[in-house]
Amino acid sequence: MLQNCYRTLGLVGKLIVAEQNTIAHSLRNSIAFTTPMTPNFLVPIRLKHHQQLDYSRYPKLIEEELEETFTRGSGPGGQAVNKTSNCVLLRHIPTNIVVKCHIHRSAHKNRQEARKILLDKLDSHFNGEFSIQAQLKAIEGKKSAERKRRQNKLQEMKQKWKEREQQETANDNKNN
């Protein structure tokens, strides 16, 4: 196909195609395609149910109520994992909820992740059915029930259509 373009357009066509190839190559290597970024058109879709969630009861962490210790990690990785103390044990003193986090290699990231996990556990502990996780589960349940209702409705319509088609073919056979 490119050869046909070259024949019809001549030298100008070759330059245009070559320029498009260099633009495509430069776009592939640009920062927009190599760094993970959230496209702007996806943001409203992801935040669609964000407005339905009630964050007013979400707990706040008070650093004085936390007891933080660093322990040695475990799991796959051998000596590199076993000799570093980057596993975070975070205990909320008033409720005695303990969180252990050893997801990342660095202690700093594990501290941040442990606090997120502890906040979710405190939210579930204090708020119960009004916690963020329970709200998300309820929204997901409503969505799946609606999906199931639509699917059942479609199945009924298909079944009625098949029955009607069978009746029509039976009537056509009787008439012939």
UniProtKB/TrEMBL annotation:
<comment type="similarity">
    <text>Belongs to the prokaryotic/mitochondrial release factor family.</text>
</comment>
<dbReference type="InterPro" id="IPR045853">
    <property type="entry name" value="Pep_chain_release_fac_I_sf"/>
</dbReference>
<dbReference type="GO" id="GO:0003747">
    <property type="term" value="F:translation release factor activity"/>
</dbReference>
<dbReference type="InterPro" id="IPR052405">
    <property type="entry name" value="Mito_Transl_Release_Factor"/>
</dbReference>
<dbReference type="GO" id="GO:0005739">
    <property type="term" value="C:mitochondrion"/>
</dbReference>
<keyword id="KW-0496">Mitochondrion</keyword>
<dbReference type="InterPro" id="IPR000352">
    <property type="entry name" value="Pep_chain_release_fac_I"/>
</dbReference>
<feature type="region of interest" description="Disordered">
    <location>
        <begin position="138"/>
        <end position="176"/>
    </location>
</feature>
<feature type="compositionally biased region" description="Basic and acidic residues">
    <location>
        <begin position="153"/>
        <end position="167"/>
    </location>
</feature>
<feature type="domain" description="Prokaryotic-type class I peptide chain release factors">
    <location>
        <begin position="62"/>
        <end position="163"/>
    </location>
</feature>
<protein>
    <submittedName>
        <fullName>Probable peptide chain release factor C12orf65 homolog, mitochondrial</fullName>
    </submittedName>
</protein>
<dbReference type="Pfam" id="PF00472">
    <property type="entry name" value="RF-1"/>
</dbReference>
<keyword id="KW-0809">Transit peptide</keyword>
